[in-house]
Amino acid sequence: MSSPNDPSGSPKRTQKIRTMVADDYERISGADDPFVILNLSRDASLDEVRSRYERYEKFYRAENFQRFADMDLTRKALDIRRAIGRAMVSIQSSADAEPEEAPSAPKKEKPVLPQVDDDCAALGDIYFRDGLTYLKLRDLNSAEECLKRATNYDPSRGIILAYLGYTQFKLRNNDPGVVDESRQQLERAASMEPDNAEVFVLMARFGINVADKHFATHALDNVERIRPKHPKLRKLKKRLDKVG
């Protein structure tokens, strides 16, 4: 299964890809069995499951479908990718549950962060990446839906919360309640990940957009502290200079 974004693709190959996506989408839409979703027999080994998942995951990345300029095809690819991610997590969880093992030592986390098991974290990351893809496609509604699901699966990652807050602000910036909630989400995200420059970049954008110079300045100071050569720092400072 090669990438659908192969520049040498002919019309015949393009149609073959569309047919493949349609067939896979039909299969995953009517299936609850993770082995059916991955198109494997139930006696497949874990190595076979992982190999099939990696092939599908690589093939169904959204960037592979951007050249088609077909939003419906891209959505189906993302739906398939999420489905195979859930299937992989389900099979892996079942395999891990079979042997009786002593519980592993809990990971050290900041007191403010909730504990998240590996399965939920994996699903949260899938939805987060899909949310970022929708943001690149300027589909804010789909991005919001993915980011909400990402935070539901993994509420421990400040960067996901930051993107959710900023996306909701972009969608409904004429609603004072939403603007206030977005500000709180960004501040919460910064407290969760105080050394993540990308969180503060989103905070700076928010501050500039609402003309809160103090908020934006504080955010940019932190970007400079964490990553002095951040590629967006200079541009954001220029935008901030124009805020009255």
Question: Can you characterise this structure?
Answer:
With 244 residues, this protein is an all-alpha fold. It has eleven helices and no strands. It has helices at residues 11-29, 34-37, 46-59, 71-97, 118-136, 140-153, 158-171, 176-192, 197-209, 213-226, 233-241. α1 (11-29) packs across α4, α8 (176-192) packs antiparallel against α9 and α10 runs antiparallel to α11 (233-241). The longest helix has 27 residues, at 71-97. Keywords: TPR repeat. Residues 91-112 are annotated as: Disordered. InterPro entries: TPR-like_helical_dom_sf, TPR_rpt. TPR repeats lie at residues 124-157.
Structural class: mainly alpha
The ordered string of helix (H) and strand (E) elements is HHHHHHHHHHH
What are the low-pLDDT stretches, counting only 5+ consecutive residues below 50?
Answer: 100-112
How many E strands?
Answer: 0
Average pLDDT number? 85
End-to-end distance: 54 Å
- Sheet with most strands: none
What percentage of the residues does DSSP assign to strands (E)? Answer: under 5%
Number of helices: 11
CA-based shape = elongated
- Please give the radius of gyration in angstroms: 21 Å
Instruction: Please bin the fraction of helical residues.
Output: 55-70%
Keywords: TPR repeat
InterPro entries: TPR-like_helical_dom_sf, TPR_rpt
Protein name: Tetratricopeptide repeat protein
